[in-house]
Amino acid sequence: MAEAIENTEVEVEKKSGSNMLLIIVAAILFIILIGGAVAGYLLLNSDDEVLNDANKAQQTQVANQKSTTKTARGTNYAEIGQMYPMNSFVVNLYSESGSRYLKTTLNLELSSEELAMELDAKTPLIRDIIIKTLSAKTYEEISTIKGKENLKDEIVLSVNEVLSDGHVNNVFFTDFVIQ
């Protein structure tokens, strides 16, 4: 009978030991889970902050370029420079349904006559830049006068980034149809 009591005590100690081990393992897993969640949260938020900082810096740069472009694009139409006519553009406007398109023809006002030769050589690149700029716009963005002015500024900035012999002063739309 004494042996039966000792065996029961040993089994109770084994059960309580295994219960204690189970509790310790569960606690360790819980701590690892919480630590992983905190680490993931911090990593995701730090990436968002870096992206937000980069976007803010880019928006500031574009705003600064727009302000300098607006002064370069001045409204003194008596002193318009040489024009460089572009062929027509027909693009789909950015839209969920893809049902709107824009047909436009434009002329680029050049800062110097030498720039015309560079534009002749870079016509495919210039057309590609303009097509990307136009097709990234929605109907709502370009249907107003202010929207068209912003579009002109964006085209001027984008085209000027690839020019070395001068710069484009202004863009003049000679045809602008949205359907």
Strand residue content? 15-25%
The largest β sheet comes out as: 4 strands, antiparallel
How many independent structural domains? 2
Globally, the shape reads elongated
Low-pLDDT residue intervals, each spanning 5 or more residues: none
CATH superfamily of the largest domain: Band 7 domain
Structural class: alpha+beta
Give me the count of strands: 4
Alpha-carbon distance between the two ends: 99 Å
Describe the 3D structure.
The protein folds into two domains: 1-72; 81-178, Tetrahydropterin Synthase, Chain A (2-Layer Sandwich). The protein has 179 residues and is α+β, with helices and mostly antiparallel strands. Strands 1, 2, 3 and 4 form a four-stranded antiparallel sheet that branches. The radius of gyration is 33 Å and the shape is elongated. The termini are far apart. Helices cover 62% and strands 16% of the residues. The model has no long low-confidence stretch (mean pLDDT 81). It is built from five helices and four strands; from the N terminus they run H-E-E-E-H-H-H-H-E. Helix 1 (2-72) packs across helix 5 (145-160) and helix 3 (123-135) runs antiparallel to helix 5 (145-160). It has helices at residues 2-72, 115-121, 123-135, 139-142, 145-160, and strands at 83-85, 89-92, 101-110, 168-178.
Topology:
Layout (H helix, E strand, L loop, with lengths): L1 H71 L10 E3 L3 E4 L8 E10 L4 H7 L1 H13 L3 H4 L2 H16 L7 E11 L1
Antiparallel strand pairs: 1-3, 2-3, 3-4
